[in-house]
Amino acid sequence: MPDLSPILACYPVFDRAGPTPAVVPMSGGLINATFAVGSDHVLQRLHPIFRGEVNLDIAALVPHLHAAGVRVPSIVAARDGRPFVTGLTPVEGIWRLLTRLPGRTLHSVPSPAVARTAAELCARFHGALHGVAHTFAFERPGAHDTELHRSRLHQALARHPSHRFHGDVAALTVGLDRAWLAWGPLPHLPPRIVHGDLKVSNLLFDGDGAATAVLDLDTMAWGTLDIELGDALRSWCNPGREDDPAPRFDVAVGLAALDGYAAAAAAWLTRAELAALPAAAEHIALELSMRFAADALNENYFGWDATRFASRAEHNLVRALNQWGLAQSAAAARSELVAATATLAKRLCLE
Fold it and tell me: Thinking of the domain 112-348, which architecture would CATH place it in?
């Protein structure tokens, strides 16, 4: 536990009389180091994959979300007015202070009803940013370039021929290549400002299971809804962990999510966007399997569970196999999802 008092001293919100709020590490995140500061704030040190400018984007877009009634954390300005602090010794890195929202985190979706409320909140998030003109100060190009990730997987196989998991990854790659080439062409959809990582643990829920807030805004970017909701559905519709050996795509959860999202987004959602969603979870699961498989050989993924796996490589191979199994399960559900979205498009009179 580092001494974070130099960071807290940068924020006038802590100048008030009385003891400094307790600072406690928060578990669960794989990217940013996160600390609860009392009951009202969260302090984070950004992972090096992010630059400080990402906070400029968050500070610019949060007011649009709040104006539409979408609850997201606010960035607290430092003493110099900036939305982050850096260059402090001995606590090097880029730090930011956020408001802390009430609610509980889920790591799986327990029912179709919860999926529906989560999807409705995500539609409201997208709707709040619909039509907003914003040039991002920080971007991560290629985050969902599937062909790029496929190329990196093949490069990893060529680079690590003697790796102990080379044979496992090579066998998996054959199936991934075949499935991806058969998946079909990418749809042409309008660009929107998206969240970029709508896994269920990036939402907050109340005691009744209603989705109340959206967290972790670092990945906001211009993107398309098939990628955005494909990532959400592959998270929400997999009842097990991301490293569970027996994944499956829960069709009932997927149908509820699609219905809730389309109904809440009907004012601006296009028929083409809705039609692209039944195949989207399969796409993202294939892509993530490629990424995890490459990481199993490169051994450079930023987070892994040392309490359950002997090595970073082992954990990433299990993740890759999980997403491969999920992609196959999602492929089997595609026809049912296609029929449901066609009915939705007619019911909602989407253009």
Answer: Alpha-Beta Complex (3.90)
**Encoded tokens for 94:** 């880029």
Neighbours of 199 (CB within 10 A): 16
Strand ranges in 48-207 using DSSP code E only, listed in sequence order: 75-76, 85-86, 94-99, 192-194, 203-205
| Structure token pair of residue 256 | 């509820």
- Output the CATH code of domain 5-99: 3.30.200.20
Q: What is the 3-state secondary structure (H, E, C) of 253-291?
A: HHHHHHHHHHHHHCCCCCHHHHHHCCCHHHHHHHHHHHH
Q: CA 322 to CA 240: how far, in whole Å?
A: 10
Location of structure tokens 């406690």: 24
257 and 116 in contact (C-beta within 8 Å)? yes
Q: Cα 175 to chain center, whole Å?
A: 25
Contacts of 203 (CB under 8 A, 6+ apart): 105, 106, 118, 121, 211, 213, 214, 215
Residue 147 pLDDT grade (very low, low, confident, very high; cuts 50, 70, 90)? very high
Cα diameter, the chain? 64
How far is Cα 172 from Cα 320, in angstroms, rounded to an integer? 8
- Do the Cβ atoms of 245 and 201 come closer than 8 Å? no
**Distance (Å, rounded) from C-alpha 61 to C-alpha 193?**
10
The whole-number average pLDDT for the span 113-125 is 98
Q: Where are the domains of the chain?
A: 5-99, 112-348
pTM over 0.85: yes
Q: Report d(CA 79, CA 133) in Å as an integer.
A: 29
From 276, 292, 284, select the one nearest 327 (Cα to Cα).
Answer: 284
Q: Are 149 and 294 in contact (CB under 8 A)?
A: yes
Is the backbone peptide bond immediately before 90 cis, with ω within 30 degrees of 0? yes
Question: What does the block give as tokens for 31?
Answer: 């990217």
